[in-house]
Amino acid sequence: MRAPLLPCYLFPYILVSMSTFPSLAIVGLGLMGGSLALALKEKNRAQKIIGITRKRATLDAALQRGAIDAASDELNAARDADIIVLAAPVRTILTHIHNLKEIARDGALILDMGSTKRAIVNAMNQLPERLRAVGGHPMCGKESAGFDAADASLYQDKIFVLTPTERTNECALNTSHALAETIGSRVIEMDAARHDEIVAAVSHLPYILASNLVATVDDFADGDEMVWQIASSGYRDTSRLAASDVTMMLDILLTNSENVANMMRAYSRRFGELADLIYDEDEKTLREMLERAARVRREIKI
Amino acid sequence: MRAPLLPCYLFPYILVSMSTFPSLAIVGLGLMGGSLALALKEKNRAQKIIGITRKRATLDAALQRGAIDAASDELNAARDADIIVLAAPVRTILTHIHNLKEIARDGALILDMGSTKRAIVNAMNQLPERLRAVGGHPMCGKESAGFDAADASLYQDKIFVLTPTERTNECALNTSHALAETIGSRVIEMDAARHDEIVAAVSHLPYILASNLVATVDDFADGDEMVWQIASSGYRDTSRLAASDVTMMLDILLTNSENVANMMRAYSRRFGELADLIYDEDEKTLREMLERAARVRREIKI
Fold first, then answer.
1. Which of A:211-250 have CB within 8 Å of B?
2. CB contact under 8 A, B297 and A232
3. Judgement on whether residues A183 and A208 belong to the same structural domain of the protein
4. Domain ranges, residue A31
5. B169 and B216 in one domain?
6. Which residues of B touch A208 (CB under 8 A)?
7. Residue A76: which residues within 8 A CB-CB, separation 6 or more?
8. Which residues contact B258 (CB under 8 A, 6 or more apart)?
9. Which A residues in the span 123-182 are in contact with B, Cβ-Cβ below 8 Å?
10. Residue A114: CATH number of its domain
């Protein structure tokens, strides 16, 4: 399924992983893009970083913090870049990929940091053969967004998923590996479809659970402040994701709606069983179900 | 509904809050009872603490850490205590209350730290008139249990709910307030029925959500280790409560099953609506629902 091997614009892995990255454009300077720029600058591993975002204030802040060398509010500024990293909500990334068909230079590598991968890999497969593209997703979300939250250590010891496309050749994959490892991540390669199933389970479902918990408790509280005073660390942690950036989450849910709906159905079925067991006070079966979850949860190292 | 004012065995509030507590028995030396003993010892505010639990190893550990002055594996050892604190799973507390009818000395104050309050307050209402009793619930759970996890600072800046009973007079209430404040807590008084409704929403529902999340993802993963590698901080926090002590949680759920079932029904209704909106890709309504939860969650200070 990989693209035919064109002459590799970049170096082979052994050189890439030891050398300085050439000119790099980062499109989107929020938590993810901003942290990437800061991490590369801290390691002094990029010849030149061009920051691209529509918000002038963000560009100014990024220049001032030394995260980028040049700033632009137009995608056109990615024209001369050897590597173009797209760090935006998924549907914005899809638009960027489309627009880069004309803009990107021959042999340029396009790598994204979007939270779902099937739609993006499909769009990357439509790129002209003169371009390279790899899907990427670093597993290090935070509920605080924006460049202000950016942090050079965000990617340290985190998983960075890479999903090959029809525009991925060995050189593009090597370069992507090297970039992820440079900022401290550990790479896992997988198919875009499998990635989207997995994140529906371990990331999108938890977000929906948290959001729905907050709304349900808010309905119940109905203005009674006492309810929030009684809420303690259990509620705090279980509901944390509800504060995530909604525009980003909508892009995620709507580009992964089938997997998310499937996971929600599976969740609902088990939830209904639990409710019946509690209502019927079936202590034995209830204990078995809760013990199983407790055992699995205690074994997980995150 | 309060008990007729019998001669107050203990001091009035102003004296109680400034003075040393008399002889105190703590029944159950897990996270809650153990932390209470350590906190009182650290402040040097108890004349004598008798630790009571069936596990010899826990008694030895508590004696060694200086948490208690005397140790016993029999409830009978609470015979001479002025204050008896019950720190055990709810249904064990119910048994202790029943047994203390014969054991406790005239005028003794029985205070509990159980996680649901209606069943306990009902049991306290059946105590002989010669005894005092107040329901209590400090809002500071952890998923790690046992004396090893005990910590003198556990109650610091945490809410301590007190629920009056028919065996509560002013003196008993004052003493309970003073005890909670001594260990650093802030007291909220409320009706047992309201307490149980609120904790069903902010504590028991989050536990069920977490436990069911772990089981659903474990079903989905079906042995594929990749799934757990992709799981990140969002999954970690949303699922944390699933590791709670199951025996304690079963006592909680089964002594509050009606409220928990009601909250689960309310949650399910909204969850179904969300699933439909995602499946139908109704972005506008979905955005409104998610924005509301994000706004509410960001406002909460926990």
1. 211-221, 226-246, 249-250
2. no
3. no
4. 13-190
5. no
6. 271, 274, 278
7. A103
8. none
9. 139-142, 158-159, 161
10. 3.40.50.720
Q: What does the alpha-carbon distance between residue B139 and residue B180 come to, in Å, rounded to a whole number?
A: 12
CA distances from A126 to A104, A120, A236, A278, B28 (A): 14, 10, 43, 52, 66
**B214–A139: do the CB atoms touch at under 8 Å?**
no
The domain tally of chain A equals 2
In angstroms, the separation between the Cα of residue A177 and the nearest Cα of chain B is 17
Domain assignment of residue B8, yes or no = no
Residue of A nearest to B227 (CA): A198
Angle at the Cα of B186 from the Cα atoms of B180 and B189, rounded to 5 degrees: 85
Instruction: Please state the rounded mean pLDDT for residues A110-122.
Output: 97
What is the rounded average pLDDT of the residues A104-108? 94
A234: confidence class by pLDDT, cuts 50, 70, 90? very high
* B235-251: pLDDT as tens digits: 999 999 999 999 999 99
Number of Cβ pairs < 8 A linking chain A and chain B: 298
Nearest CB among B250, B279, B302 relative to A232 is that of: B302
B183 and B59, same structural domain? yes
B1 touches chain A (CB under 8 A): no
Do residues B266 and B231 share a domain? yes
The alpha-carbon gap from A75 to the nearest alpha carbon of chain B, in Å, equals: 27
Nearest residue to A206 via CA among B224, B205, B294, B213: B213
Asked whether this complex has an ipTM greater than 0.85, the answer is yes
The answer to whether residue B6 sits within a structural domain is no
A101 phi/psi in degrees, rounded to 5: -50, -40
Decide if pLDDT at A2 tops 70.
no
- Say if residue A200 is in the same domain as residue A52: no
- Contact call for B216 and A199, based on CB within 8 A: no
pLDDT at residue B135 is higher than 60: yes
DSSP A280: T
Q: Coil, strand or helix: which one is B46?
A: strand
Question: Which of A211, A262, A281 to mutate against chain B (most B CBs within 10 Å)?
Answer: A211
Determine, for residues A227 and B199 on separate chains, whether the beta-carbon distance falls below 8 Å.
no
Same-domain check for residues B82 and B200: no
Query: Between chains, do B238 and A233 touch, taking CB under 8 Å as contact?
Result: no
Question: Is the model's pLDDT at B7 over the cut of 60?
Answer: no
**pLDDT for residue B20:** 67
